[in-house]
């Protein structure tokens, strides 16, 4: 009788808690992939781009996360080419 009680308690303890609502990259950048970049060249090319660290709940979080590292948030169509991203726009 003790085993079913312990089994039920173990299953209840292992159940996941509430999940946070996070936006996907497609929600934040309708055209392209989100990147944090150091230098923007006329919106055509961004230099030294990396994936944004941490979780992004919305566009403001994405921009703030990039700003914390001294970079600018951008939505780039072609990216991850030797830390260069092409055809970038400001996230909306």
What does this structure look like?
The chain is of the alpha+beta class and 92 residues long. It has helices spanning 2-14, 25-28, 59-68, and strands at 33-41, 45-50, 72-81, 84-89. A 4-stranded antiparallel β-barrel has the order 1-2-4-3. Residues 19-23 have low confidence and may be disordered.
Largest sheet: 4 strands, antiparallel, barrel
Q: Helical amount among residues, as a percent range?
A: 25-40%
CATH architectural category: Alpha-Beta Barrel
Element-by-element helix/strand order = HHEEHEE
Protein name: Cerato-ulmin hydrophobin family, Hydrophobin superfamily
Keywords: Disulfide bond
InterPro entries: Class_II_hydrophobin (IPR010636), Class_II_Hydrophobin_sf (IPR036686)
Family: Belongs to the cerato-ulmin hydrophobin family.
What are the main properties of this structure?
alpha+beta, elongated, hfbii hydrophobin, four-stranded antiparallel beta barrel
Topology:
Layout: H1 2-14, H2 25-28, E1 33-41, E2 45-50, H3 59-68, E3 72-81, E4 84-89
Antiparallel strand pairs: 1-2, 1-3, 2-4, 3-4
Concise structural overview:
With 92 residues, the chain is of the alpha+beta class. It has 3 helices and 4 strands. It has a 4-stranded antiparallel barrel with strand order 1-2-4-3.
């Amino acid at each position: 009788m003790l085993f079913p009680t312990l089994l039920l308690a173990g299953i209840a303890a292992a159940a996941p808690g509430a999940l946070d609502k996070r936006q996907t990259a497609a929600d934040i950048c309708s055209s392209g992939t989100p990147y944090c970049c150091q230098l923007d060249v006329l919106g055509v090319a961004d230099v030294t781009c990396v994936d944004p660290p941490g979780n992004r709940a919305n566009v403001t979080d994405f921009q703030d996360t990039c700003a914390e590292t001294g970079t600018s948030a951008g939505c780039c169509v072609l990216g991850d080419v030797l830390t260069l991203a092409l055809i970038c726009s400001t996230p909306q």
